[in-house]
Here is the input.
Amino acid sequence: MSNKKEIVFATNNLHKLEEIRQIIGDKFNILSLKDINCNEDIPETADTLEGNAEIKARYIKDHYGYDCFADDTGLEVEVLGGEPGVKSARYAGNNHDSQANMELLLKNMQGKSNRKARFRTVISLIIGDELSLMDGIVEGEITLDKAGNSGFGYDPIFKPIESELTFAQMGSDEKNKISHRGRATAKLIEKLDNIK
Ligand code: IMP
Here is the structure.
């Protein structure tokens, strides 16, 4: 029997799960929502990324008793007062349509010269009764047009300051090195590494 500690990653995104398992799977047995038979749609009702990340982790701790972490990400555009932010997945409506979200954002940015934006990921971690929050940020700008076919979400219209390419024009390794999620995950790993 494995004596690795068990921890739940409160996500249904298999890609994120696999990525994190590759990084910290030696030390922790990382369980998915499916592994613990959690089939509910956990309500994300907060109006901040921090709030939603915490809701998801607390839900699992309270209902299933597992130590847990959860993440929430938003694209924050300066000239739009931080929008779409916590609403990034459903900016153009409830059906999580990335093309529609990008079209709406480009439309709302028409004629704006300030195109500064950032992606921000917040991770909440609950171990025992201790809650920790960590974040990862990548600064950049919204391009005038879409470019590139890789990645997902707003990748074709986001260019980080570290590069001349949009996220959708990069390989995943290149993106992960500088991305919001990569940076937040590095903080999570450091925190988990310090757990005895
Ligand atoms: P989530 O909290 O990771 O599900 O992210 C919420 C929404 O933000 C997603 O549905 C995407 O629209 C957007 N998003 C999150 N991460 C990225 C990324 O790395 N690239 C582009 N869009 C992203």
Q: What stands out?
A: The longest strand covers residues 130-142.
